[in-house]
Design the sequence.
C-alpha cells in the first residue's frame, strides 16, 4: 500500500500516484504476458508516451519561436521538477525522486527502471544525449544526469 497523503506537496503526490498507476499496469502486463513480452510491451508503451510528450513539447517550442536544443528542453519541459531534489554541490545528481520513492514503497524498482527510459526519448528529441551512469531505481544513491549536446 502506498503512502500518499492528502496533505503532501501536490506535485509530489501526483508524481507518486502516476508512478503507482504505472507500477500496477506494468506489473499486470508482466503477469499476463510473461516477463519477456510484458517488459517489451512496457518499453513500447513508455516509448510511445515519451514520443507523445515530445511532440507536445516541440509544438510548444515552435509556438514560442524557440529552436530545438537542450536549453529549450528546460524551457518547455512538461513534468515539473518541484518535488525532485538535487545535490546542491553536484546539480547533475538527483537525490530524491518521488516516483522512485513510490516504487521502493511498493517493493519493485525494476519496473521503475523501465519507466526511466523515457528520459532518453525526451532528451534525444531536443538534440541532447543523456548519460545516466547512476540511477536510484537500480539501487544507486542518486540519479546522475550527464547531458551533452548532440
Sequence:
Amino acid at each position: 500500500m502506498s503512502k500518499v497523503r492528502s496533505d503532501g506537496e501536490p506535485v509530489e503526490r501526483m508524481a507518486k500516484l502516476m508512478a503507482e498507476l504505472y507500477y500496477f499496469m506494468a506489473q499486470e502486463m508482466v503477469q499476463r504476458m510473461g516477463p519477456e513480452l510484458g517488459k517489451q510491451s512496457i518499453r513500447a508503451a513508455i516509448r510511445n508516451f515519451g514520443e507523445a510528450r515530445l511532440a507536445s513539447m516541440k509544438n510548444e517550442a515552435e509556438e514560442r519561436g524557440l529552436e530545438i536544443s537542450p536549453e529549450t528542453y528546460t524551457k518547455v519541459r512538461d513534468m515539473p521538477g518541484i518535488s525532485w531534489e538535487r545535490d546542491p554541490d553536484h546539480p547533475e545528481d538527483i537525490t530524491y525522486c518521488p516516483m522512485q520513492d513510490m516504487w521502493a514503497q511498493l517493493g519493485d524498482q525494476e519496473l521503475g527502471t523501465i519507466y526511466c527510459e523515457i528520459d532518453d526519448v525526451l532528451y534525444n528529441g531536443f538534440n541532447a544525449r543523456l548519460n545516466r551512469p547512476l540511477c536510484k531505481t537500480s539501487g544507486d544513491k542518486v540519479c546522475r544526469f550527464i547531458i551533452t549536446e548532440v
